[in-house]
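Quick entry, no commentary yet.
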Amino acid sequence: MSPTPKNEVPETSDEVTLKYKEIVKANGINDEVSQVLINSSGLQGEGFASQANYVTINFKNPKVKPLNLFVKSLTANSTHSDMLKESKLFEKESRFFMEYVPAAKEFCKSKGCEGLVDMYPKCYYGDNDMVVFENLVVGKGYVLLKKVEQQDLDAVR
């Protein structure tokens, strides 16, 4: 993600900032948040009924690295949003990442296969309106592969 020019820093409402402060605190991060920046991910048409944004959380302590998040949320299209809410798609996705993946990691560790499911991002939060993940592109150097090209397991790794 390219940095936002200083004169174009998007403003984030107090309500949204408070929501992300609560998410950070619920995940055991007790550093004081100074700023929450939300930018479009540029992933147009990737989700048929969701939109994706990059969220950067800056902390007051300059020694604390910013937290980079990838957030999927409902679109303005009420038909698609209602369908997602009715099917509880975001809730199911967050449950997979917040319950199944950690359990799978523990199971693999107990069998001596640590790191087997490390390809999944950490899920910080999920409800019926949004899912908040760590941003693997910014945080761990992952890259997005072209969907139109077929990928095998080695390429994905």
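second:
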Amino acid sequence: MAILVDENTRLLVQGMTGRAGTFYTDQAMRYGTNCVAGVRPGRGGTSHLGLPVFHNCAEAVKETKANASLVTVPAPKAADAMIEAIEAEIEVVVCITERVPQHDMRRVKDALKSSNTVLIGPNSQGILTPGQCKIGVMPTVDAKPGHIGIASRSASLTSEVLASCSAANLGQSTTVGVGGDVLHGIGFVGCLERFRDDDDTKAVVLIGEMGGREEELAAEYLASVDYGKPVVGLVVGRHAPVGRRMGHAGTLSVFGNLSADEKTSLLRDAGVVIAKDASDVVRSVNSCLS
């Protein structure tokens, strides 16, 4: 089993005929993801990479039964693309686009409220269920099927932790990159809820950082429920200068008042096993499962 995507996922790619869309569609297809269509206004009725291209998501869903979308549309139009996918009732929408304006994301958040769509991103590395489905830019070379769920705010740390887990025979059920922007879709709590309900996920790894409130919300959630599965947490940025942007908008501490150490303390108090650094995640997971 897995969360959100699996071998039954039928993917369409918005902006597929562009440079990024072409590249990431090809990668997904090579991995084995079931890509069924592309969307590009004005290009409907054509084909690209052997797939039919439609004017909009509604047409694509009607003809192909697509239930997931990858948004590769440039930032000025990315919000419109996400909203189009939401209005087409697509179940999972992954947006890898960076620098989507925050006022545009307000419109996306409003659209999500009255829908059943799960949004991953924007500025996300995507989602990966090893051996079944890859949507986005998630690395696959080190991924292995298994029983560890991973939810992360950091793309680079995701790669490192995923590789070290696989090397230690700790395969993954699903890995989710929640996105590096302040305003985004699914967060740690949404991932935790789904991993809790997934019988095949035996433990969860949360990879957090300074800025934002994802770690605080996760701690509040875990403290309020009998989660039933071990959760390992890693919060990086302990030595980052206060108030300085570190990589992306989500790490800017003005958008979250707590330091990395304070977030770590909250998670520990909520029952999370804390890894000292990325190299300590495997030991922490194994200690929980032994």
